[in-house]
Design goal:
33% of the residues lie in helices and 28% in strands. By secondary structure, it is α/β, with parallel strands linked by helices. The structure holds adenosine-5'-triphosphate. Keywords: ATP-binding, Cell cycle, Cell division, Cell membrane, Membrane, Nucleotide-binding.
């Protein structure tokens, strides 16, 4: 069973032009896939549909075999538990410590403090920032802040990791470090879908690439 299925998906915002048109693709469990295309091609729209922040105007979307096209609002919080999201500007809370930022999804899910502590430490250890758990985000570099954003996304052990331009603000060396982290999580079974317009980075990493242009899929290249 595919992790992600898009069948004839279209998206119009406010009844105007089509941001996405007749989009068809599957992502299998355990795959790592790049989503690329020019600014406005529809990359963020695909991710927002998968987060159930938007609904498709046409077609059908299924995640792990479950149709999410018309997910009832009351089911959205449960649905989102299987998804970790990494943002370009990481969206950390700047008045909370690294530990508290990473713990937030667990607190929302009602984890016990002991369980939360154990899992936050495990996530911080994986991204190499365990020693910074008491720091405030402002005391960290941009690359470190992005790693904390990744720890927060994976702390609940989601089946699927979505990232929108996660290296957008980072230099090439830091971008490569961040990509290695995504590859590490992919290697242990997490399905990863990454939107990026950094063609040089994408070419180096040799994963499958879905290419959008004006809301249409114009390329689907398997890893070289
Ligand atoms: N909430 C919205 N209301 C109206 N139009 C929108 C909305 N969100 C996106 N759009 C439009 O839909 C199209 C696709 O946008 P989207 O953000 O998905 O593209 P993108 O490939 O992620 O671009 P970028 O790399 O610039 O973020 C664009 O023309 C955009 O202006």
């Amino acid at each position: 069973m595919a992790m992600i299925e898009f069948a004839h998906v279209g998206k119009r915002y406010g009844g105007r032009f089509e941001a996405l048109a007749d989009l068809n693709f599957n992502v299998e469990r355990g795959e790592m896939v790049f989503l690329t295309g020019h600014s406005g091609a529809g990359k963020s729209s695909v991710l927002r549909l998968l987060m159930a922040l938007e609904r498709p105007s046409r077609g059908r979307i299924a995640v792990a075999g479950h149709d999410i096209t018309n997910l009832h609002v009351s089911h959205i919080p449960f649905y989102r538990r299987q998804i970790g999201v990494v943002y370009q500007n990481h969206q950390l809370l700047f008045d909370r410590s690294v530990f508290d930022n990473v713990a937030l999804p667990l607190v929302i899910q009602g984890a016990t403090p002991q369980d939360a502590r154990r899992r936050v430490h495990a996530a911080l250890d994986k991204i190499g920032l365990l020693h910074r758990e008491r720091a405030l985000p402002i005391e960290l570099s941009g690359g470190e802040q992005q790693r904390v954003g990744i720890a927060r996304a994976v702390v609940t052990k989601p089946a699927m990791l979505l990232a929108d331009e996660p290296t957008g603000n980072l230099d090439p060396q830091l971008s490569a470090d961040i990509m290695r982290l995504f590859e590490d999580f992919n290697r242990i079974g997490t399905t990863v879908l990454l939107a990026s317009h950094d063609l040089a980075l994408i070419a180096r990493l040799r994963h499958r690439v879905l290419k959008l242009r004006d809301g249409r899929l114009i390329g689907d290249e398997e890893a070289a």
